[in-house]
Design a protein that fits this description.
heterodimer; A: 114 residues; mainly beta; seven-stranded mixed beta sheet; four-stranded antiparallel beta sheet; B: 111 residues; six-stranded mixed beta sheet; five-stranded antiparallel beta sheet
């Protein structure tokens, strides 16, 4: 499978716990994006990387959220002290920088905070 | 006001119908326009991609962009029950990879 891979697919956590999600982009894609999607809404941009550099962050990304992309390959998204409002689908996407193509998405990680 | 507006539907059509899905936007800097299809509990799947104004056709799907009106459309010909999904429009400007999505339109094609 050469698509974008996200793990875990589902995560249930108690309020106040920390969670970490992983995204493995399509090989050789140098841009990687994180989005959040709640029921009945379109995906909302959180942040994106070009190689290992984090180029843009949304105001949605509070200080409880942190994303990394060490060595420009896979990426992790961590949420600290989770709140019920963090319950959502977290989507990762990747694309080439230098080609006129668009982003391809993974299947997402569904987070439920109880 | 949201940057991208999309009627959430739901839209229900009989099999074989022509479907028209639309989005309006307010940011004149948007240059790249996409349509994604999303099945329940799955990630969005890229359907069509258009740069600037004009039409693009791919099989039963046609994407249109009218930048003067800030209006984009996706047409589906000979719709099939397997087309039942949520359709998301998305767009971005040339200086960023960040996509701005519409709310999504839920489509049901009845056999």
């Amino acid at each position: 499978d050469t698509g974008v891979s996200q793990n875990p697919r589902h995560k249930i956590t108690k309020r106040g716990q920390n969670v970490t999600f992983r995204c493995d982009p399509i090989s050789e894609h140098n841009r990687l994006y994180w989005y959040r999607q709640t029921l009945g809404q379109g995906p909302e941009f959180l942040t994106y990387f070009q190689n290992e550099a984090q180029l843009e962050k949304s105001r949605l990304l509070s200080d409880r959220f942190s994303a990394e992309r060490p060595k420009g390959s896979f990426s992790t998204l961590e949420i600290q002290r989770t709140e019920q409002g963090d319950s959502a689908m977290y989507l990762c996407a990747s694309s080439f920088l230098d080609r006129n193509t668009e982003a391809f998405f993974g299947q997402g990680t569904r987070l439920t905070v109880v | 006001q949201k940057e991208v507006e999309q009627d959430p539907g739901p839209l229900s059509v009989p099999e074989g119908a022509i479907v028209s899905l639309n989005c309006t936007y307010s940011n004149s800097a948007f240059q790249y326009f996409m349509w994604y299809r999303q099945y329940s509990r799955k990630g969005p799947e890229l359907l069509m991609y258009t740069y600037s104004s004009g039409n693009k056709e791919d099989g039963r799907f046609t994407a249109q962009v009218d930048k003067s009106s800030k209006y984009i459309s996706l047409f589906i010909r000979d719709s099939q029950p397997s087309d039942s999904a949520t359709y998301l429009c998305a767009m971005r400007s040339s200086n960023t990879g960040k996509l701005i999505f519409g709310q999504g339109t839920t489509l049901q094609v009845k056999p």
